[in-house]
Amino acid sequence: MKQIAIIDDDEYIGDMLKELLEREHYSVLRAYSGTEALLLLQQHTPDLILLDLMLPGLSGEQVLPEIAGIPVIVMSARAGVQDKVSLLLAGAVDYVTKPFDTRELLARIAVQLREAELRTGEGRQRKEQMFDDVDSSVGLKAGELVLDTESHRLWVNGNPVHLTRTEYAILKLLMEQNGRGLSRSTILTAISEETPDCTENTLKVHISNLRRKLRENSPKEYIEAVWGIGFRLVKT
After folding, report:
1. Reduced 3-state DSSP string for the chain
2. Can you give the pLDDT at residue 235?
3. In this predicted structure, what is the pLDDT of residue 15?
4. Mean pLDDT value across residues 219-226
5. Using one digit for the tens of pLDDT, what is the confidence trace for 46-80?
């Protein structure tokens, strides 16, 4: 069952979309603000996101750059061509102007999910070639993990996996150490410039979320705790 995240603070529209999508046999996630959306994406990797722009806290324009590897359809009352162009160039795959026809929205969702499946299928076919061809100057490889250090994107077993900024920094550091155990304080110091919000209290949560995302795409356990030290990437 495909999973769709609705990020919209309008409860009426959100409830209507949830009922509509569940009737079409989609699983639905909800977030009512930009900050809540980022927290939701730390816990889940939906197949598609419906994103409103006028959100409390972080706006839709601020949330969009934080989303990678997941198709995003923007829903907004803004009808200006420049607004649409800017958001499409910023990473959205489609733009729907409110109020919208639900049949049209469902068709656009189906198209984007189908295209994502095609991309994933092609990715699986090219997986072995991709693992062989990643330039070591811009990418890191470990077993089924391929981390592009230029685009900050991760593939696991040929599948794109969305990472938060903190999760990316942790995984990059562990992959660079090639199996060497790192203490919690060493990890925090090494990633402090990129992720100053990560603390000793939250590090375990970030690593737990990272492990879950890797496990969802591979049966292998890539990150293990080293008793008395911290964490390391398991050699494969």
Report:
1. CCEEEEECCCHHHHHHHHHHHHHCCCEEEEECCHHHHHHHHHHCCCCEEEEECCCCCCCHHHHHHHCCCCCEEEEECCCCHHHHHHHHHCCCCEEEECCCCHHHHHHHHHHHHHHHHHHHHHHHHCHHHHHHHCCCCCEEEECCEEEECCCCEEEECCEEECCCHHHHHHHHHHHHHCCCCEEHHHHHHHHCCCCCCCCHHHHHHHHHHHHHHHHCCCCCCCEEEECCCEEEECCC
2. 67
3. 94
4. 85
5. 999 999 998 998 898 888 888 877 899 999 887 67
Burial of 96 (0-12, 13-18, 19+ CB in 10 A): middle
Backbone angles phi, psi at 158, to 5 degrees: 85, -5
In the chain, the amino acid numbered 156 is V
Q: Please, what are the domains in the chain?
A: 3-123 (3.40.50.2300), 127-233 (1.10.10.10)
Q: Which of 159, 153, 149 is nearest to 67 (CA)?
A: 153
Q: How far is CA 62 from CA 2, 83, 146, 199, 203, in A?
A: 25, 14, 27, 23, 24
> What amino acid is encoded at 36 in this protein?
E
| Token pair 């990560």 in the structure block, residue | 198
Q: Are 170 and 207 in contact (CB under 8 A)?
A: yes
Query: In sequence order, what are the beta bridge partners of 30?
Result: 6
Residue 46 CA to chain centroid, in angstroms?
Answer: 8
From the list 212, 103, 230, the residue with the least C-alpha distance to 222 is 212
Cα separation, 173 vs 184, in Å, equals 12
